[in-house]
């Protein structure tokens, strides 16, 4: 079940009955007890600009690198990334209660102190992170919205969202994208075409060959093509021109 509220700091559970979805209780209890590394609603309101400090208690020091995955699904990629890079703070963002809880449960079971699972719609990215706060953002195989032409407006990665990404990433930060939909890939490449971005492969030491999602392996097994790129932010948008 996905969240309905567009306000990332509003409690999405306040008007919902626990019997509607058993993960509601797990989500609430996990946050209140601190037993699960997850966040949602009002608990995130103080964090824009303070995400690194949030990880300090668990890691013993402020992490130098902060990376966000949008659409963590059940965490296959971000869990492996967190295990491979224990000094990197990772945030997995998703819109469904079950996925957020599952990722948090797996992180806890694996003893991954550098990962937090967040219930949030990525369209609220501008509110949840301060400008220049992130070192990297990656999105693997988002919904391409190709069933009907009118659905194209539902795609997350469009020109306006690319401008948000530019603000949230520090200069030199990366945006890493994968899809099986060639038209979506072409549209995203067009949206990133400009002087504020450059193509590159430097991902804060995170190599691409290690991280393939279940979707990517499925496509490869069927000999279906997939598409990816990594763009590097060249700096903040000038607002004084």
Notable features of this structure?
single chain, 241 residues, alpha/beta, Rossmann fold, 2 domains, eight-stranded mixed β-sheet, 8 helices, 20% strand
Major beta sheet, specifics? 8 strands, mixed
Write down the overall mean pLDDT: 90
Helical proportion, percent range: 25-40%
Shape: globular
- How many helices? The count is 8
Strand content: 15-25%
Distance from N terminus to C terminus (CA atoms, Å) equals 44 Å
Per CATH, the superfamily of the largest domain is Vaccinia Virus protein VP39
Low-confidence stretches: none
Q: Can you identify the CATH class of the largest domain?
A: Alpha Beta
Task: State the secondary-structure class.
Answer: alpha/beta
Which architecture of the largest domain per CATH?
3-Layer(aba) Sandwich
| N-to-C SSE string, H for helix and E for strand | HEHEHEHEHEHEHEHE
SS elements, strand count: 8
What is the CATH third-level topology name of the largest domain?
Rossmann fold
What is the domain total for the residues? 2
Instruction: Walk across the major sheet and give the strand order.
Output: 1-4-3-2-5-6-8-7
| Cα-atom radius of gyration | 17 Å
